[in-house]
Fold each of these.
Amino acid sequence: MKILYAIATLALLSTSAQAWQIVERCTHSKFYGNVCTTSYLDDPPRNAAQDQENEKARRASIEKWEAFCKPQRTYDSEGVVRLVYARKGCEFGRSE
């Protein structure tokens, strides 16, 4: 039984991700009943310039937060890394 579960899991994990949306439209007619059509919409192509702009804005936001909060790494008694901030509220994303 475990082998069947393992095979089913591998089969599900080995399938590729679908890069489209399925849209189903149904209409009702008193002569034909319900008529449904299914269509597939491809994802829009990615814009490399927009991706670079988004990454640049994300980096600027991170740099602004780091300049405001000045996080420093410390280790607790268990050896777990903890961050200590220069200002209150930085652990919640405050950057001003």
Amino acid sequence: MTESPSAAAQRLLVQAAEALGEVMESGSDVELVALLSTCETVVRRLDRATVDAVAALERRGVFAERGYTSVSAALSDLLGWERLEARRRVVAAEQVTPRVGLDGVVLPARLPATAAVFAGGRASLRHVETIARVLGSDAAARLSPQQWTGAEAQLAAKAGLYTPSELQAWGAALVEALDQDGAEPDDRSPSGVNELHLTGLPSGGGRIKGRFDDAAMFDAIAAVVDATARPLTGDDDRTVGQRQAEALADVCGYVLDHAPTAVLPESGGRRPHLTDGLRRAVAARDRGCAHPGCGRPGSWCEVHHIVPWEHGGPTRLDNLVMLCRVHHRQIHSTDWTVRIRDGLPEFIPPKWIDPEQHPRRRALPHLVGAA
């Protein structure tokens, strides 16, 4: 049987890794030093191949077909990456690979000079991420197209000379020097408008649009949202808008659950809320979102019925699991499943992620050594 290109590539990679291992065991000092450079070169080539594969899968809609709205979330589940590492590759795929327009025409990469040095191994993934961050700033958005293109070329040229942190500082100074006028002043006179519009959508969900010129009203809303919209962890890859939207929904949900009737009257004879004692029991068991690798705290989570209550699922501890909004949506929209086993939640990935569908559990350090 003819060996497929993918199988041949994997075989050659394994052979190359084994050969490098032999050099590490018996190589001279000079050979080991050279080996480090070789390994870095190989890593950058593999990173380029990974980024190209991510871009191709995203263009084909492979992850979306499997229920994922976030490519980085799909990569995290598939490969066991931290969200930050997954996001780094998604950003690179968006910036240094060719794009396809709505008319099917292939367009150049957003960062063509960076794409060239990345393809040539003269820039790492971190360099690509740094250049994208610098050129995605508000100051960079104010540059003319010619200035922006020139800045990108200069940043790409420096990638082989500077570490990512040095490139970040140098690039920020470059953009600041080019953006001499700064942001345009807003000379509009205030109109004293305080309004909020909520529009439901036929498919569910809706839009919220508002404006508060009353400083006290706006500050009260902003204080509540800001207090709950901060990044949950260092690898929280949600945008500011996503964090603020979920923060507002969380605050409203808390009010629905806990506010007395005097503050929030019943609507239609019923107020949606959770059984508090049961929620505390779920929170004590799951210690936040139970999905493996998540770690969002309980205050950011919802309680999910494993067997839906509308299908007869009981509201009991053995049918409940704590999930953040992201993983709650994932359970409802993808082929991931969850069950309780030995008193703890475990998640079954879809076959495209793990053909053997090995159950996964979130690490719970407080149970280490427990009988």
